[in-house]
Amino acid sequence: MRRAFLFLLFLLEIGLGTSSPVGWLDEFFQIFKTSVNKISLYSPLKTIV
To answer: What does UniProt give as the signal peptide span (predicted)?
Structure first.
């Protein structure tokens, strides 16, 4: 959980550094969607284990 939070802070720093925040937000949501999909895939495995 803490690692994910630090990763978000890292992404935020990158986003602030870029010139186009809109493009960064779009990229961030793509990353967020894929990570949520991965979590939803792994969560049944965690409940089994």
So the answer is: 1-19
